[in-house]
């Protein structure tokens, strides 16, 4: 059995909260995009390049916003 320390979940929760705090649409990393997320994190850790992370966050933000529209539509 593998136990995880929860740092990833905590970090994503903080990002979600910060989006709400600053009045921008939050995002959730979809399971299907987990490999892309991990690659983007590795890119940052290796060279401090946030391009892949911000691109993924924007893509996930748009996807989340579009899903929310279902509940907001009249």
Automatic annotation (TrEMBL):
Gene3D superfamilies in UniProt: Fido-like domain (1.10.3290.10)
Where is each Fido domain found? 1-59
Q: What is this protein called?
A: Fido domain-containing protein
Which species is the source of this protein?
Answer: Dorea formicigenerans
